[in-house]
Amino acid sequence: MTRTTTTSLRQARDLTAETFAQAFEHRRRFRGKTDAEAAGWLYGIARHQLSRYARRGAVSRKAVARLGIEVPTVSEDDLERIVELAELTELRQQVAAAFAELPPDQHAALRLRVVDERDYGDVAAILGVSEQTARARVSRALRRLADSLETNTTTPMEATP
Q1: CA torsion angle for 99, 104, 108, 113 (degrees, to 10)?
Q2: Band of the pLDDT at 5, cuts 50, 70, 90?
Q3: Long-range contacts of 110-115 (CB under 8 A, 24+ apart)
Q4: Which of 15, 79, 104, 133 has the fewest CB atoms in 10 Å of its CB?
Q5: In this structure, are residues 94 and 146 in contact, taking their beta carbons and an 8 Å threshold?
Q6: Residue 104 reports pLDDT greater than 90
């Protein structure tokens, strides 16, 4: 794989992660009731993230080119150190623990849909249920994870006496 392809994949992953992080952070603002409304809301967030990325990137690239600066690359060790400094290890452990506590039907549905990135039709077929049931299981699992994480984490405001 070329460096450009690797960089593009990393950027796509970063944009996707930021889109879902924003959606998760602001999930209580979502007022839609259908999958189409949810998809539209998510695509709107993604479009906004991509637009911000493009604007920032254009300005940065012009400045770097004008100044003749070589941008250093981030190694896997650097990424691991960033995760460590951001204290994501604890959050990962909390997510893993909450994921393990899900009822088996929700656990399987969420694993297939989110971890294995299967579409709902595949999830339903693998689990031997209707697509609507697969969607409900994934939704319930995500709600349980969110509730568990909200219960197990405190904000800096809550942590201060």
Answers
A1: -60
A2: low
A3: 110/137, 110/138, 110/141, 110/142, 110/145, 113/138, 114/138
A4: 104
A5: no
A6: yes
More confident call, 126 vs 60: 126
**Type of residue found at 33:** K
Single-letter amino acid, residue 158 = E
Distance CA 153, CA 161 (A): 16
Comparing CA positions, the residue from 103, 102, 99, 106 lying closest to residue 135 is: 106
Q: Does the structure show a pLDDT above 60 at 45?
A: yes
pTM of the model: 0.47
